[in-house]
Design a protein that fits this description.
Elements lengths: L1 H22 L7 H12 L18 H17 L1
């Protein structure tokens, strides 16, 4: 759901900034994407269901799912 929300807000930011930049004869390029990513990165602390993963720990989605399930089992037994 977070991905869909980010995609929609990125699209809306692109449309809005395209109109703003058109006044100056410029194209927004990746600026809306960058703004959207920064907003969602800053919101990370306020979303308890989103689990941050360190970059060196990233491998495949299956490994990440296995790690999340293991951490949930450990937390539920404590």
């Amino acid at each position: 759901m977070l991905t869909v929300t980010a995609a929609v807000s990125g699209t809306l930011a692109t449309v809005a900034l395209d109109n703003v930049f058109a006044v100056f004869g410029l194209a927004p390029l990746t600026f809306p994407f960058t703004i959207t990513v920064w907003v969602y990165c800053l919101l990370m602390g306020s979303m308890p269901n989103v689990v941050p993963v360190a970059i060196p720990a990233l491998s495949t989605p299956e490994d990440h799912l296995r790690r999340v399930n293991l951490s949930r089992r450990v937390v539920s037994t404590v």
